[in-house]
Amino acid sequence: MPELPEVETVVRGLRQAGLPGARITAVDVRNARIVGGEPEALRQMVVGREVARIDRRGKYIVIDFDNDARLLIHLRMTGKLRFGAADEQPGKHDHVIFTLSDDRRLIYNDTRRFGRIVPCGASDPLARLGPEPLDAAFTPVVLGERLAGRRSRIKPLLLDQAIVAGLGNIYVDEALWHARIHPETPADRLGPKELRSLHKAIRQVLASGIENQGTTLGNGQSNFYSVAGRRGRNSDQLNVFRRDGLPCPRCGATIERSVVAQRGTHFCPACQCLNAD
Hints:
Helix content: 10-25%
Number of strands: 10
Radius of gyration: 20 Å
Number of helices: 6
Distance between the termini: 35 Å
Low-confidence stretches: none
Shape: globular
Structural class: alpha+beta
Mean pLDDT: 95
C-alpha cells in the first residue's frame, strides 16, 4: 500500500530518528526472500559502514553509505520500518534486523513478505522510473509528453511507475476525482485543460498526503504506520477512495466502485463522466 506520501513519511521519520550518521554493526536476516536470497551479500555491503544519507525515489527508500554503496528498500504492500531496543525479541513478521552502533535496532517488518531490501547495482531499478511528481521540473507539459499518443486508459497509465513515479491506487483515484476525469478515459482524449487540471490534482493530493503523514486505512497490523508507530491522518481527506456507496462531497451523487486494470477503482459517475466518441 505505501505510496509516495507514506514512503516520504518513513524517510523523514528515519532522518528525525538519527539514522544518517549511524553505523551498521550487524544484520540479522530472518527471511532470505526479503533480501533477494543473498543475506551474506547484504552483510558484506553494509556491516561496518556509516549511513551517509536517506532519500526517496518514487516508492523506494534510498540509503547511501559512506563507501558509495546504495541500498534500496521497497515496502510494497505491508512493509514497515521501526526502531527497537537491543534486547527486544523479534516478532513473527520481523524479517531483517540492522543493529546500529548506538545499540538500537532498525527492524524491517512485513506481514505479507512482498517487500524487498536490495543493493542498487548494475541493474538499477531507479533508472526506469518516471519523473518525481512534486519536483519543479514536473509540469503539465511534461505530464502531457509522458502520456502523448497513448490510447490506454488513464488510471493504469498513472499507476505505471515508468510514466510518473510514486503514484498508487489511493492517490490516483483521488487525483482523478479532483480533476473530474473518469479513470477509464483514454489518455489521448485529454486536452491541455484536462492535463493542467490533472497535474494540479496529482500535486495537490500528494502534498496533502505528506502533510498528513500518510494514509492509514483500518486498524490491522498490515496497515501503514510511521517509523514512530503513528497512524497516517490522511484518510479524513479522501473523497472517493473506499467511499463507494457514499455521497460525492462535491455533487452528492453516489460514489461507485469498479475494477480497472485489476485494481479496485473509486469515482463519482456524475463528476467524472466517461464521454463516448
